[in-house]
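Same chain as my last thread, 662 residues:
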Amino acid sequence: MWTFDAPPAKAMARDLGLHVDQAFLDRLRGASVRLTTGCSGAVVSHEGLVLTNQHCVLACAQNLSGSVDYVRDGFLTDAREEERVCPGMQAEVLEAIFDATEAINDASYRKYGEAYVVARQGAIDKAERDACGRDPTLRCQVISFYGGGQFKVYKYRRYDDVRLVFAPEFDAAFFGGDPDNFTFPRFDLDCAFLRLYENGRPAATPNPLVWSAAAPKAGEAVFVSGNPAGTERAATVSQLQTERDVSLPLITRQRAELLARLRAFGAGDVEARRLVGDPIFDQENDLKVLRGRLAALAAPGFLEARQRQEDDLKARLAIAPAVAAKIGDPWAEIVAADASYADLFPVWRQLENAAGGGSQLFAWARTLVRAAAERPKPTARRLPDYADSRLALVGKSVLDPRPVSADLERLCLEVWLAQTREALGPDSAITTLVLGGDTPKALADRLVRGSRLADPAVRRALWEGGAAAVAASNDPVIVYVLRTDPTARAARELWEDRVEGPVDRAAERVARARFALGGQGLYPDATFSLRLSYGTVAGWGEGKAKVAPFTTLSGLYARATGEAPLRLPPRWLAARSVLDPATVLDFATTNDITGGSSGSPVVDADGEIIGAAFDGNDASIAADFAYDGAGDRAIAVSTAAITEALARVYGREGLVKELEAR
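reply #2:
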């Protein structure tokens, strides 16, 4: 997961036998897209067309559905006028990277507590402002690498008008369903197309990736350019033990409870099933990841191996007294902070990190309340989410229209309230504050029944009216957030003061120790920033069995049973005779990806796009902690299959013509 300003040129030459020049990297960077909904993509035409995954636009398709269910039936367009805005979605293309480490560290040197936070945030805001100015088409973001060992300004070209062009049916994109998720072989057409717009017209994108309809070949070199969301490969043993023993068990249990409630809700009728399709997909995927992470941390020898690595770094530090004097003992500081973690995590999670349980009404209300309080402050003293560089996106998330299901809102709020009572105890003062004497079910019903926040005009009036409008509001969800938010903020401040802040400062010194003792060639943990991964198209071995790197359309039809989750849409059944059965559908590579990489372009040695990453195999879940090239695999849908399907299943000749234009 290499950053684009520090590519591993020598390693790529050694491992692939290729010289990757700066022009190649610049083309790939300039066509790579970060979607603020948590996915990646690639510009693939001169008119702003972006390839990503169907599961990355699932919420968009759900929000656009009404009399037509675009998740079930697919979303197809014949003309630009039919392309529809995805609510809340923003696309960003990285233009440049600047180092801001010295300025940010100097600003906070020898400062502690609030003075440290204010000084550092002020330096971050200045770096972002200096890089982007007031250009509304740009977004600049300071990103921390190596646990705070480096700070870089990432300058993005921003597109806040992103429209859905094409998405296949859910049964085609997620064929095999949850049982096949994080396995291989896969038989999924997990692709979708978006379009970037400027001033109401398709954006001019003069340097797209060249589309290739050729099938990938075993052993060929491939590159993935995407935005992996987060890894913990540099985490200390204490941090990993705390995650294993404290946070992962609670989060896993809560997600399982919510999934069970969503499935029960979806058993009601056709409309209920439609409403919970996207949330169920998310929860099933997240649960597999959470359980995989727990299994990795509990695997015999895993933490022992990490302990040996940690002990080796400490031993090398002990014989480098000049470096040791500057580093101190950050590992002991993390152990001390992890003791507070166990006490504070349940409150922080319930009131801050997972507050609202996925309720859209609650999320809007909290944003409106906090924005009203934060916007009048100098940007350096605001909560980071409300800094000047982020306000445009925050406003978009609140103001874009999207449908709201009152029944689903009640379910999310009720589950969250019940889980808060369970996590904190029925007699906790915070539980009393959160529930106010009501049952979770009664409170959720009262909040949703009386709220008018589903109306975009109501939200706009509160956003534009600021603190006065929010204080005067009688919307029950706004009133509820106003009453509980001081306690939530206090929980956040305590968490940052006793856990996040101390761990960040200690992790920064661990990173400096690695650098000083020869670790300059290491890539940083994932941070939802653009990364380059190189690898090859390859299968792998499972015991004596060999897993081939490809699946084909013939394999798809052979596997189909007509029953979910192995059910093909009617279009696919009708088109079987005209499809080339040998077309490669999905393929596996040794590239290093994780959550956030979904939709990332897979390109060949010529820089032509041959696929879009959408999944990993089961072994790759543990790659959040350590990557193993022997068995960890990324899985991608091939452009060969996408081209074949667009032309012969969906009849999108215009889209194929646009993709193949040079």
